[in-house]
Amino acid sequence: MVQDRLVPERSLAVDLVPTEIWLLCWDLCSYSEISRLSLVCKRFRIISLPFLFKHQSLDLAAMEQGLDQNNFVDRLDYMRRAAVRVENLTDPSFAALPLIESWTVRFGYEHALSSKKQDIDIEDLRLFNKLRARIMETFCKTLHIYPNLSSLDMERYTVDTAFLTMLAGLPHLRDLRLHIPDKSSVSYSGGNLTMPNLRRLDISRHALLLDGFTRRISLPNLVDLRIGVVRNTEVVFAHVAERFPLLERLGVDVIQDYSSEPVPELPVGSLPNLREIIGPQGMVDGLVPGRSISRVVVGNGGTWAGATSGRRFGAFSRSLAAPRQTSPMAATPSVGELSRGLSLHPPAGM
Asked: Which site among 52, 194, 226, 237 is 20 to 30 Å from 31 CA-CA?
């Protein structure tokens, strides 16, 4: 009887809590915790549902890692549920709602999974691959139906004309990250494409993909470019300066160039808005002179010899403005980070 009286009181208490209080819960919970809360609390689910649908993720590559006969059934079940989820998200009655704003997807690589066939006793890997192909096809064919999609982070093994044309057809896409392995297939035979609203592009080391974006795809409003690996520096940076004149931030992880000379300096007046450079020393030497650079992060991802601080500040002396911040790429925790970490675990007896 006491329990019967408590039930309506609990329900009433939930309804009396202002929406603002529920919204504050998002700052105290992780994304997965919010998902779990939404399953047991109807009120919280109603409020948080739009937030939960904003950022979608799908990691099929993780299902391939460590795949063996002991976990094959469970992972196959995950693939089936993932296929149903992607297909449900593309239902016209749902997709028309402006909920989904970003997608993070790792599709994995069929050739890597096929190589496991000789190592593990799984009779039918074809079913696993068919499910992944079904998910990929559904996802790529229906990506354009999300009206508010602004961010796409994708790891994909095959890039072709249809895929790049699909990307160019996303009207509100502002942030794009593509990770394409070197051994993957990249081919593009169409005409020039335009992505007018793209502001940030992060592409991996594949030379053909970089060539496609710097030669065949027009990005008139791109301001932030990050490249994994650059091989032919003179050609690449010349095309970057020509194709992306509004660029404000340029980053390169590794430059594969066996010369000890810095990147050739770009013509005076090119990249006038460039303010931030992230990359090896030779890249800094070539891009700082003649520009109002405000921040530089110097990394060791290159093959130049004798990259000294003297060369770095020699380049800064020819800059139009003194940089406000220069720092090496963080390879190890700073003293402050270590101190904060140690303070969380004081020695016994203190």
From this structure: 226
Per-residue confidence band for 318, with pLDDT thresholds at 50, 70 and 90: very low
User: Which residues is 193 bridged to in the sheet?
Assistant: 217
Task: Report the length, in residues, of the chain.
Answer: 350
Query: Residue 282 and residue 237: Cα distance in Å, rounded?
Result: 13
Record the pTM: 0.71
To the nearest whole percent, how much of the chain has pLDDT over 90? 11
CB distance 214 to 239 below 8 Å: yes
For residue range 152-166, list pLDDT tens digits in order.
998 876 777 778 888
d(CA 208, CA 187): 8
pLDDT digits (tens, 9 = 90+) for 97-112: 677 889 999 887 655 5
Residue-level pLDDT at 236: 82
